[in-house]
Amino acid sequence: MDIDDIYLAGKNAAYDAAAKKLLASRKILAWILKYCVEEFKESEIADIRDRYIIGTPEVALTPVLPDQTNAVSHIRGESTEDATLTEGRVTFDIRFRAVTPEEDPLELIINVEAQRSSHLTYPLMKRAVYYCSRLISSQYTVDFEKAHYEGVKKVYSIWLCMDTPDGASGITRYRLTENQEYGAYREDRRNYDLLQVVMVYIGQGKRELGNRLLNLLEEIFKSKESAKDKRERLQKEYQIDLNEDEEGMVDTMCNLSVGVYRRGMELGEKKGWQNAANEFVLRLLKAKMPLSFIVSMSNCSEDEFRQIAAKANISLTESAE
Questions:
Q1: How many beta carbons lie within 10 A of that of residue 88, not counting itself?
Q2: What is the pLDDT of residues 269-321, one digit of tens each?
């Protein structure tokens, strides 16, 4: 790869890392829980932040795939592994536990994913359901053993979608429900309402009256204001006082966003947009970058990458493992 490719790939990865760390702050997570987790809709933001989130949220540490998740769960909080550009292991962006404010409280396992692009080769919803399934199945030997299924915890997988299909903001919930087709028997809701997927679509530059979470996320990820203005607005409108590290993440995101845009413009002007994109992909392929990584670094589909590779007679590296 030449310097342009390294710049674009590296800066996008650095932006994603900063975004995940900022989202993992209790100050931001509290707003996400307030609007996305039913059990907290009547709770105060300060209570969610200070009382109901358990421990320190894990950022890109816990593997999604079977035989890997539980091993990390047993030593939760002790991993010292750093993410790299070519890391092939699939991890949850953010995973943590929370306790509900009820008299008979429940412990929830919550996953938050920051999804930058909707240009995928598969339905994102199926991936979200799979993540919920893994959050449940990985509880075996951690939260319950053998036939003690009463120990299964309710899980949420919350997806923050930056690239919405029609540019509009919205929140959509998917859950297990009870339908009585014959007879009057009713199951205790706690025994089946065990997983929910919440898709949060963040539109561009549009204030959503009545939903402060969408406004907050638009401010963080879509607003073109300076980092200083963003920090001031977060404090004034959402009472979010960022510490020095969190301010640094906002600065990083703003600076990288501008830098990637400008370098992309330079490449486009020099080579033409399509040629620049194809050349960028070819160099990543020649460098033996895994296909999953290349997909995450651009707006092209996996099929388009395969076509480019086939024309150039380049073999694909499916993963880094």
A1: 14
A2: 554 445 555 666 676 677 666 666 666 655 567 777 777 778 778 777 665 44
pLDDT digits (tens, 9 = 90+) for 199-233: 999 887 666 667 999 999 988 888 878 888 889 99
Pairing type for strands 154-161 and 107-115 reads parallel
State both tokens at 214: 């969408």
| Alpha helix (H) residue ranges in the chain | 3-23, 26-36, 45-47, 69-73, 124-137, 212-221, 227-238, 244-271, 273-286, 291-296, 302-311
Cα 221–222–227 angle (5° rounding)? 65
Q: What whole-number distance in Å separates Cα of residue 271 and Cα of residue 267? A: 6
pLDDT in tens, 143-186: 989 889 999 999 999 999 988 767 788 999 999 999 999 998 99
CB 137 within 8 A of CB 54: no
Longest CA–CA span in the chain (Å) reads 70
Q: For residue 113, what is the enclosing H or E element?
A: strand 107-115
> 46: closest CA among 33, 30, 35?
30
